[in-house]
Amino acid sequence: MRFITMMGTAALSMTAATLAQTTINEIRTGSGNAEYIEIKGTPGASLNNMTVLIIGDGLSTTTKTGVIEWIYRFAATDVIGPNGYLVLHNSGANPAYVPTPPATGADPATGAFPFTIDPAATNLPWGYQTPTGSAGDTQIESPDNMTFMLVSGFTGTDTYQTRAPNSGADGQDLDTNDDGIFDITPWTAILDSVAFKETNGTVPAAGQDWWYSTATCGPYASRYIQTSGAPIALWTIPTAATGTLTTGTYVYGPADQGANLTGSNLRGVHASATSVYSSPVGLAPTAPYALSSNGWALNDYYEVTASTQGFPGVTLQWDQYRSSTGPSTFRVDMSIDGGATFTTVLEPYTLASASWTGGSKIIASIPNAGNKASVMFRFIDTMATGAATGTNRVDNIMIRSDANQDTIINTYSGPTMGIKQANGTWFIGVASTTVGFQDTCGSLNYAAPTYTCGDPNAGDCAIAHGNAFCADACCCAYVGGLDPFCTTVRWDSICVTEAAGCAANCTGAPCPADLNGDHLVNGADLGTLLGDWGGSNRDLNGDSLVNGADLGVLLGAWGACP
CB–CB of 176/64 below 8 Å? Predict the structure, then answer.
């Protein structure tokens, strides 16, 4: 009896140890067949009773975050490979995917998994299942705020496996009040988790999903030059109006184009709960649909909201049209305090009852709308409508920058790829949809590199590269002083443009003993020289040999370069 008890205790201890050592190790999303989730654990250990969950957003207006939108249940036969890794990946075989028009070559949504998996790791393609109501795709949604979880003892109600992006409306809602805290926890234990962040900051931006893990990866920061007159937020109404109408209010959602999409929103508000919102044809070629509604009354309105940060001047333009019995006069009010107070920025204007193909395009520069965290514009009906069936429609609503005001716009997305380090922290891999050198499927992860100004491996200052810093210490310091993004985030094309000023600002006399380019001859250069002792790469006196003569040259130049 004692022997059996001891054996049982040992088995329980081994099970607990196996669970504790089973973790999520590497993730790549949003790349069609080039997607995978790598699990690390005890070689030969079974993943029985373990489940991978992806927590994201739902489509319903009442389940906006904390929804299970992707799930994979491991079988007892799924075991960690002899080298300690298992790679769960998109096989690329999706029987419901039908290209239109028919593909003539390789299609990004199909095809074989493009990476070489270490043969000592378990190679596990995720399967395609078609339960009633499941989606016809197997990809992971990206970019978005998503929480990846490895749990044991999952008992949730959601049974769909490897569902399509944006299919969270069918998933179980675990955060019923959308406050970033799980209200339902249908599992025995969370073995590991990580959240991929699309937005910067400690909390999600308005309209974004919460994340549900203290371990985070991202966001992937990038930027570009916003040309004058380009959209800050633009609603082309690319999808038909769907969703829930509540007491006359209909929320269409965020802008589909522009620099500041995060937190943007379009909605309609009517006093009548019987007003009907619809999506007739839009103005070709830019807008597939328009947003239309009937049941208009005095002070009913359409409303758009967006951030104008980074833009000192703002212009508002849109297309609007009415039916013969729809409201014909509107005005535009603006709020910069979240709707607490409004000012009229465009006095009442009149819409013609004409062919929608001609439309009524309105363009107006809006004072005091630039560089605001949130700007709200309301297109307000200023007259009573003759018939309840009278309609009014809007399209191509654009908040854009004023002319001659180019600016740098910081954006966030993904990350497409996350890599876990030995200390448990995550960093962003190469944000690319193609095979990258950082993809180490089923083997030891790529280590996050560290650089400084002057590091010969940091990259050419005249060429954009994926890390901060560049190899020329003086140029790197000069550009970094102008633009810290280049020495804290990434040496991008804007840094390369700024580096054109290095020639005029790095004109010191030659200093050959400065081996690392920091304009100082010191212990760092001495270490570099000694590392090449007997070689020729760090030869200072021209005899093709690094020896005591070169050491003398270096010591003679000790200190700041001229």
Answer: no
291: amino acid identity, one letter:
L
d(CA 354, CA 393): 12
Report domain 22-219's class: mainly beta
What six digits make up the tokens of 507? 């004109």
Pick the CATH number of 231-407 from 2.30.110.10, 3.30.450.20, 3.30.300.30, 2.60.120.260: 2.60.120.260
Residue type, 406: D
Helix, strand or coil, per DSSP, at residue 87: strand
Is residue 245 within 8 Å of 278, Cβ to Cβ?
A: no
Residue type, 356: W
Q: Please give the Cα distance from 142 to 168 (Å, whole number).
A: 13
Answer yes or no: are the C-beta atoms of 261 and 233 closer than 8 Å. yes
Summarised one tens digit per residue, pLDDT across range 134-160 is: 334 467 777 788 999 999 999 987 654
Instruction: Supply 347's token pair.
Output: 């006095």
Whether the predicted model's global pTM rises above the 0.90 cut: no
Q: Are strands 343-350 and 301-306 parallel, antiparallel or unpaired?
A: unpaired
pLDDT tens per residue across span 335-355: 999 999 999 998 888 887 655
Q: Please name the residues in contact with 7: beta carbons below 8 A apart, sequence gap of 6 or more.
A: none
- Tokens found for residue 133: 């109501």
- Cβ distance 171 to 54 under 8 Å? no
Pairing of strands 23-28, 417-420: antiparallel
Burial level of 341, CB count in 10 A (0-12/13-18/19+)? exposed
- Give the residue extent of every domain in the chain: 22-219, 231-407, 416-560
Cα 219 from Cα 414, distance rounded (Å): 6
Strand partners, 9: none
Best CA proximity match to 395, nearest among 295, 293, 486: 293
- Only one residue has tokens 């854009």, namely 400
Residue 267's DSSP bridge partners are 251, 303
Q: Is the pLDDT of residue 108 over 50?
A: no
27 contacts 38 by C-beta, under 8 angstroms: yes
